[in-house]
Design a protein that fits this description.
Elements (H helix, E strand, L loop, with lengths): L1 E6 L6 H12 L6 E7 L2 H8 L3 E5 L20 H23 L4 E4 L5 H11 L3 E5 L9 H14 L2 E4 L2 H5 L7 E3 L20 E6 L8 H13 L4 E6 L8 H9 L6 H11 L6 E4 L5 H5 L4 E4 L8 H8 L4 E3 L15 E3 L5 H12 L2 H18 L2 H25 L1
Parallel strand pairs: 1-2, 1-4, 2-3, 4-5, 5-6, 6-7, 8-9, 8-11, 9-10, 11-12, 12-13
Length: 402
């Protein structure tokens, strides 16, 4: 099957990493991926993997997610999406010329709907919309209606990454759940002795909405109380902040130099011996093997990809999610739930885990069992492949009937 994947994010985000894991996990010869990716690190890494790829200067998006939806200054982002429209169309026309006809279109995030709809009109092929983020559910009936109509009219299959995401979609929409997968390789990890510091980490793009500043303040609180804990932050800024564009983004509040903020915070509070910042890496397995606890204090009220990756290594999570679905995270069993935007609560959770190393090991083992059930990349790739085959079979039946 020749499948056109639309990846609207230039940064190598959780969505990009999940797509990479999916493509790696397909049975040999089952799929011939063709990737249209926004210019950035994600495109570089996909190309390094050897996938057929075209870069777009920008891919138009429509953000109706709970966190990213348009309000206040964020309405200005719509101007960017309109600006990207001709670049999106140009990239899709290049894809048509270079790759010819394809069998299916797969939008790697629901925000890519504008580009996906254009692609469906251009190629005349079924469209799979992958929903990786919790959608806006309150106080926006017109936007909900718009989302429902767009999906009902244009999407031939809607796939949510977990039950929490599916529950945020319009009622009555026939969405299926295919969990994100991960191939941990050799996931053996030797827990640190109880006498050594508790190793606590946060992994991912350095964004305020991911709870980076909450994590830093929690680390300060823990260390001020004399906790025997080591903290590590792994990631990098999501965009370059130099020059006129960077200054404009910072002035509008759309970007921050989080790397610089972390370094300033650590220096100001004298935390250099116990709080480290590491840059972006693709070798996440090495990171998880050296952690006891993962922190995911996101403001997005969703269980992110680092939680499932850590679970494979028997690393429990402290996650900021209000009502997690048991298919991804079970409070008290696979980790500890804390409220979002509450560094003190996060610190208390870490201190409690430091005092209960046996509890850390017990929750880590339960997290590993959950990962084996739901986050196996090959099993989930087969589920996605079955959806592709079903759509193609349905299309062939319609063609024969006509």
């Amino acid at each position: 099957m020749k499948i056109l994947y639309l990846n609207p994010a230039g940064a190598f985000s959780g969505a990009s990493r999940s797509l990479l894991e999916l493509l790696r996990a397909f049975p040999a010869g089952a799929v011939e991926p063709r990737l249209l990716v926004a210019t950035g690190l994600a495109a570089d890494l996909f190309e390094k993997e050897g996938f057929a790829l075209l870069r777009a200067h920008g891919i138009s998006q429509l953000d109706l997610t709970r966190y990213g939806h348009y309000r206040g200054p964020r309405w200005l982002i719509l101007a960017r999406e309109l600006w990207y429209l001709p670049f999106t169309l140009r990239a899709l026309l290049r894809a048509r010329r270079q790759w010819g006809q394809i069998d299916l279109i797969h939008a790697n995030e629901i925000t890519a709907l504008p580009a996906a709809i254009i692609a469906k009109r251009l190629f005349g092929r079924p469209l799979v919309v992958h929903v990786r983020s919790v959608q806006l559910t309150e106080g926006a009936p017109l936007r909900r209606k718009l989302l429902e109509r767009l999906l009902a009219r244009h999407a031939d299959a809607v796939v949510a990454i977990d039950e929490t995401v599916r529950a945020s979609l319009p009622q009555g929409l026939a969405a299926r759940v295919v969990h994100n997968g991960f191939d941990p390789g050799n996931a053996r990890r030797e827990p640190a002795p109880d006498s050594s510091p508790l190793r606590v980490g946060m992994i991912g793009s350095l964004l305020a909405l991911k709870g980076v500043y909450d994590f830093l303040e929690a680390a300060r609180i823990c260390l001020a109380r004399g906790a025997d804990v080591e903290f590590v932050l792994v990631g990098s800024n999501v965009r370059a902040l130099a020059g006129l564009k960077g200054n404009v983004l910072k002035a509008l509040g759309f970007a921050r130099d989080v790397e610089g903020d972390i370094d300033d915070f650590v220096a100001r509070h004298g935390l250099g011996g116990r709080v480290r910042r590491l840059g972006f890496t693709t070798d996440v397995a090495a990171l998880y093997r050296n952690l006891d606890v993962l922190c995911f204090p996101s403001h997005l009220d969703a269980v992110g990809r680092p939680v499932l990756e850590a679970a494979w290594f028997g690393v429990p999570a402290v996650a900021a999610v209000e009502r997690p679905s048991p298919d991804t995270f079970v409070p008290g069993e696979t980790g500890v739930r804390v409220p979002a935007r509450d560094p003190r609560a996060l610190a208390e959770a870490i201190l409690a885990l430091e005092a209960d190393r046996e509890g850390v090991r017990r929750m880590g083992a339960a997290a590993r069992r959950l990962a084996e059930r739901n986050f196996d990349s090959r099993k989930n790739a087969r589920e996605m492949l079955a959806i592709y085959e079903e759509l193609l079979e349905r299309r062939n039946r319609s063609a024969l009937a006509a």
